[in-house]
């Protein structure tokens, strides 16, 4: 009976064929192995004997070649349209085994560095071997004690990249929903809130929760929403009008105008930060309170007489905002917290993911939206992933986690090699603050991150296209690959390159079922997780962007904040990869890449 081996490179190509062609190919293979030798067709002018075609249909053929094995064994190398299959067959010669060499000598060129392969301990072996969709909901066995615990009050878990803070928050919400359904079977209202900072993160959490809670009644007990959408909803219910929040860029421009018109010796960026990080953060309502307040974290000293001038300017500006119906997001959160203080809580339990980027006003909203008591607030986050500049004392906001605060130290969602490479981006040794019992940074091991310095934008785009193609040919699902740049200009160039290669792309917030490489800006990677991540355009002056530096208006404090926010953003983007990381730049690498040499 004839036998058919499969080339090692065949399966990744086969997986990208349309379902109908795959089915026809499998039928042809079964027919051949059952003895239908008429399906084999010789091809003239091949460089070696035994190379031919396996007839699949009128338009498609499989390319076969002799292979080492018992009896009549052949190797299926590729499935192509008929004309392409003939040309492919004429370019092969048998190498004495199931692998095929190209005419001219040598094997097919190896893919670029970074073909994904990650290994881990036995406890995670099954999860690593399964689909990446299943992996996204995998919880390390040691962390079940946090998700299923009963706390006498609010609780907090923190952890560095790869420690699974999001997975813990997700499973905590699922546990609370199941417990609530058992305790209150006759109540069907949403009793648990799972909240996060960004819309894409909320959408991702909602989809993962659908997988964890297939029971519709249990799932219906959890509402997934961003903090900003919650705040806007509360204000709208109370006033009948949806508050219009203006963008950060527009807000910064208004503050610059205010500083110039008032003749203040401070930049618009300074005024904006003073308003958000001091006045709104501490909920200061009077000038005397502002004069007396501690301005923790604000380097520039303000004398009492200067504080009065700053206060008056800020009050005039914010009054003009109210007249125009303009809001900042912290303002909306503060107003919603005041409303909830009068109307009362709405949930029995609240689970907070990405807690590190919340403003104090948003924390006041969350404190007011759930009654104080057992298991009221469960908070998950990582200060190293803070992209904003909000440092919060939870106790000062009425959230007491003393004795119920835990640090996750088992890293299992990003490889040790990526963790080690990314740590210098924050200016500290790899793995500081996290570690496993045996002293390693992560339980997973994979390839070293690939760093590519290029001499031109075209070269950078081509190299990235080669890398993405290599990942796809290695069998990585397209939706498990993310490509990012610092701005939309970089992203558009990468999109053109991938499209020209026939690689489908989709936005980072595309539905999970879309088979396409995810593409977007670095900001959009927050809260996401992929097998493979490519970050391009890490050059001067793209990172930090010139516009961000200019916005500091020469204020050294504001400038350092810009640099730190960009470091954190880059760190977040690079640690979104579980298996493989690829980064590239043109010419001079960003100053935020201290361990990378420029192209010479």
How many helices? The count is: 21
How much helix is in the residues? 25-40%
Strand order of the largest sheet: 10-9-13-14-8-15
Give the rounded overall mean pLDDT. 84
Number of strands: 21
Radius of gyration equals: 28 Å
Secondary-structure arrangement, i.e. CATH architecture of the largest domain: 3-Layer(aba) Sandwich
Assign an overall shape: globular
Question: Oligomeric status of the shown chains?
Answer: single chain
Low-confidence stretches: 94-115, 429-440
Q: How many domains in all?
A: 4
Distance between the termini: 60 Å
Structural class: alpha/beta
Tell me the name of the CATH class of the largest domain.
Alpha Beta
Proportion of strand residues? 15-25%
Biggest β-sheet, characterized?
A: 6 strands, parallel
Which superfamily, in CATH terms, is the homologous superfamily of the largest domain?
P-loop containing nucleotide triphosphate hydrolases
CATH topology of the largest domain: Rossmann fold
Domain UvrD-like helicase ATP-binding: 138-421
Keywords: ATP-binding, Helicase, Hydrolase, Isomerase, Nucleotide-binding
Catalytic activity: Couples ATP hydrolysis with the unwinding of duplex DNA by translocating in the 3'-5' direction; ATP + H2O = ADP + phosphate + H(+)
EC number: 5.6.2.4
